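We close this part of the discussion by returning to an individual protein. Part of our work consisted of pairing the sequence of a single chain with a tokenised description of its backbone. What the numbers capture is local backbone geometry rather than side-chain detail. The amino acid sequence and the backbone structure tokens for this protein are reproduced below.
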Amino acid sequence: MTAKIAYAEVEAGTELPARTFPVTRATLVQYAGASGDFNPIHWNEKFAVEVGLPDVIAHGMFTMAEAIRVVTDWAGDPAAVVEYGVRFTKPVVVPNDGVGALIEVSAKVAAKLDDNLVRVDLTATSAGQKVLGMSRAVVRLA
């Protein structure tokens, strides 16, 4: 399978469809089971507060994975992403209020590279705070 987006049809500045991802405590427990990361800062409010966090926080790798979904959904093939990196700037705080948190992600093509590659810059925020910095993916298009 290859990307559904044609390199020739994309320009620098092309915006990808933005997405919002809900995160609840149940989501974090499911992710912990899948990833094997059972650090109590991701599920135990008392422990999280004791170590200086405002509340339970989402796994960094979970946040990173949710963000790249904007790119993989746009490209139509997760394998089209050939490089991806972020800096974690703020945690996604997930209160136990039945609502949880939202991760809002937008992205745009920042540059067209050689060999049908594009660089996509992502912006991820939660509660009005930027949670990922230097979030960039290199994607091979059709």
User: Anything to note?
Assistant: The radius of gyration is 16 Å. Strands lie at 15-23, 81-88, 101-112, 117-126, 129-140.
